[in-house]
Amino acid sequence: MAERVLLHETGTEELMKIVFLYDSGDPVSRIVHAALSEAASGAVTESVDAGTESLKPCLGCFDCWIRTPGICVHTGDAGASWLKKRQDADFEVVISKIFWGGFSPCIKGYLDRQIPSSHPFFRKVGGEMHHRPRYGRSPALLVVGHGAESAEAEACFMRYTAANRKNAGTASAEGTLVLGPNPDYSHCAAWLARMVKQ
Amino acid sequence: MKIAALNGSPRGESANSRQIISLVQSFLPGTDWIIVAPCLKQAGYVDGQLGELFAADVLLIAFPLYVDGIPASFLHVLERYSEGYRLWRNGSGRGLPVQRVFAVANCGFHEGVQNRNALEQIALFCAGSGLDWCGGAGIGTGEMLRTMSSIPPEAGIRKPVTEALRSVAEAIRASPDDRLTGDIFTQHDIPWFLYKLAGERGWLAKAKKNGVTRRDLDARPLDG
To answer: Would you state the pLDDT for residue A189?
Structure first.
């Protein structure tokens, strides 16, 4: 039986909250999402499907820092609801095809829209400059990638997603699962259970 | 020599990426340029120009770092470029030299090396598109590219960035099979703490112009 994610390890009875970001237009991502959702059935889960939702791109205007702090100029689209759902979550799980060593364009669109959750001022993380987080707590980032076109692309994806975690203030390199061709999807459930216990 | 430049910033003409293209261009007199900023245009905008872009000897890509990678709006453009270039090579571009590609990424953080993964993504884009990756530069303190534009490029504070872009330009100008020996990572010659101080003061000044106070900057609208 697949491992399941149930409660916080804090000893409280509060249910763990997990938000998934995936693209249903990508068959592997769809299967991974189903496997992880099943594994997390004891937690409170939300899902954002980048393959069906309408998302406006980040304009790089920085109004979310200097005009309406914390709020994007694009209100009411899927990016705004993604921001709220991830802010309420303990974990955000991003499932993506590996695209030139990074996230697929439709998934990256959502990550770009997270800029309102950071603060314009800076701090040092692991010897590098990064933006301060806007909120007292942020969800921990977990990533599942698949379909890397080469070993170089897979290695780039590992470094890239580690940088994402560093940017968010968690210097851990752990938290990215890369699936090879013909993956055993039951590994995804065990991986998620292990990650949320850390 | 014909050089096509893609400005990958959603901020278009007002972007630091546009400033980078202008600086590289200034080191290459006598070359013929086509410069496009396709990110905020309709999806089909760039398609009408692709043939002309593909036929250039060199493609220079300049873009800002968004959340540790290439902006999504520019990823969509590169996806179209990749698909189009492969088709073009099998059609009207058959037999022509493979296009050489250089890239310059910039970020608002102090350390230019934070652009390393984004440049590697461009290298993988080239590998997947049949393009010739020739290397690039990652520039930190990117916001200073525009704010320092009235200061001579040879001034001490600008020199590391100017020299990096000059190296890119020289590799472009050199023989067709020349390339950078490795990616260059640098930033303006300003101490970390001073850049932090100046950057934060800059954000605060811009906020004040919008009637936003220092306290307002800390707003947490999604709490509760």
So the answer is: 92
Would A3 be classed as within a structural domain?
A: no
The answer to whether residue A161 sits within a structural domain is yes
Which chain A residues have a beta carbon less than 8 Å from that of B10?
A: 57-60
Q: Provide the H-helix boundaries in chain B.
A: 16-26, 50-54, 72-89, 116-129, 144-147, 159-173, 192-209
Q: What count of Cα atoms within 13 Å lies in the side-chain half-sphere of residue B17?
A: 30
Residue A9 pLDDT > 80, yes or no? Answer: no
Angle (CA) B111-B40-A149 rounded to 5° is 60
Q: What is the pLDDT of residues B88-117, one digit of tens each?
A: 999 999 999 999 999 999 999 999 999 999
Asked if B106 is an interface residue toward chain A (Cβ–Cβ < 8 A), one would say: no
Q: Which residues contact A13 (CB under 8 A, 6 or more apart)?
A: A7
Query: Do the bridges between strand A118-125 and strand A128-133 make them parallel or antiparallel, or are there none, so unpaired?
Result: antiparallel
Range of the domain at A31: 17-196
Residue A11 lies in a domain: no
- In the predicted model, what is the mean pLDDT of residues A129-158? 95
CB contact under 8 A, B121 and A101: yes
Total tally of structural domains belonging to chain A? 1
Nearest CA in chain B to A158: B117
User: How far is residue B64's CA from residue B20's CA, in Å, rounded to a whole number?
Assistant: 11
Question: Among A86, A127, A102, A105, which Cα is nearest to A23's?
Answer: A105
- Chain A residue numbers with beta carbons less than 8 Å from the beta carbon of B221 are 69-71
Low-confidence winner among B36-40, B66-70, B165-169 (lowest mean pLDDT): B36-40
Nearest-Cα residue of chain A relative to residue B71: A112
Q: Answer whether residue A171 is part of any domain.
A: yes
| CA angle (B211 as vertex; B12, A117 as ends), nearest 5 | 60
The answer to whether the CB atoms of A69 and B216 lie below 8 A apart is: yes
Q: What is the pLDDT of residue B85?
A: 96
Q: Any idea what the CATH number is for the domain that residue A116 is in?
A: 3.40.50.360
Question: Using CB atoms and an 8 Å cut-off, which of residues 139-158 of chain A contact chain B?
Answer: 149-150, 152-153, 156
